[in-house]
Structures are given as structure tokens and as C-alpha cells.
Input
Amino acid sequence: MKYQRILLKLSGEALMGDQSYGIDPTTLQRITDEIASVVQAGVQVAIVVGGGNIFRGVQAAGKGMDRASADYVGMLATVMNALTLQDVLEQSGIPTRVLTAIKMEQVAEPYIRRRAIRHLEKGRVVIFGAGSGNPFFTTDTTAALRAAEIDAQVIFKATKVDGIYDADPKLNPQARRYEKLSYQDVLTQDLKVMDATAIALCKENRIPIVVFDLNVKGNIQRVVTGDSIGTTVTA
Output
């Protein structure tokens, strides 16, 4: 394997499969099977999972809900996804810990940086729930923050498209996919791969980002072994 410690960013939407809401069991099982194979190969895996399949704070705020309250509800949605992901991984024999930025000790451990690193060193998958614990920050920013804190070598952002394009490929069939970009390219061209705060954090800490298509079976193993798929953002 090319990497020893990675952070995988999963959107809540990635867990929906072809459904319009919630979690698709078949899709979830496929994702966890791929994660399990990577862990069994000796890679330390941390995961940040979103909650957009259940609740999106930005959308709720746009409809009149207080933004901070909406974001807190979204954080709780990420914990629901994290606990579900944990259960399926452990059914596959992979020891897993959920660490949350908001204390809820009956169901998960509170996030402590040194504890997270120790879990990884012991071969456990660590799932970070409840975002950063603060409103107005996305789970992309949480992924960049946690990756820096645990010294992850790379962030793998799993999406529904096969990389970063210069335009929306669904709307523009002539859109061009990039193989490599710099952090500055992403910021100056306003490419919506991650929010600007997340990109700035990765740039400051020199953490590469690989954007790839989660819908292709086996892609998680491919990116971890270093196959050239998707788009890589580096310095």
C-alpha cells in the first residue's frame, strides 16, 4: 500500500445509493467491505462522514431555520451515519471506534486527539462524528482539520463523480476533467470540490487530496494502492 494512514471523507449522500433519502444497505455493505480490505492490508483508516442523506443544515437555514441550530441538527445526523457505519464494519470483524466532537458518551467516545491516534495505531477504524462541533463549518473542513491533527498522509474524498471538472459534467458534456491541480488552482478557479476553509487547511499542512468516484466498485482499494484515478490536489 502507498499510504500507512489515511482519512476517508464520505458524504452522507454516498450512503444513499439510488435512494432519495436515508441509507441503502447494499451500498453501505459494499463500502464497508472495501474499507475492511484496506484495513486488513495494514492501512490505518480514519473516516469523516457527512449527514446530508438525513439532514442538511445549509438547506434548512435557507428555508428560515436558524443556521446554528440547523448545523447542530446536521451534526447529529452525522453521528447516526457514523454509528451505522461502525455496526456494519464490526459485523465484518473490523474493530471500530466512533469519536464525536459533541459529547454523547452513552453511544460514542468524546474526540481526543491522542486517543484517536492510539486507536489507529491499534488497527481500529476511527469514525469522526458531529463534525467539528461548531456550526458554520462543513464536514469537508472537519476532514481537513482531523487529517492535520492525526497526521494523515492524504485525504480521499469519495464523491459521485470521477474527479474535478472545469464545469459541471452533468450540465456540460464538454467539461474537462483535471488529473492534477494545485491548492491555489482550486481556490482561484473556485472549483467546488471542498470549501475554501478546507482547501486552505490542506494547503497550510501540505495534505494532498484525492477526489474519486465511490460508485465504482474497488476504487477505495485502488486509490490507497496509489492507482492514478480521479483528481489529485497538491502543492
Observations:
- The domain at 5-234 is CATH 3.40.1160.10 (Carbamate kinase).
- The first helix runs from residue 25 to 40.
- The chain has eight helices and eleven strands.
- The radius of gyration is 17 Å.
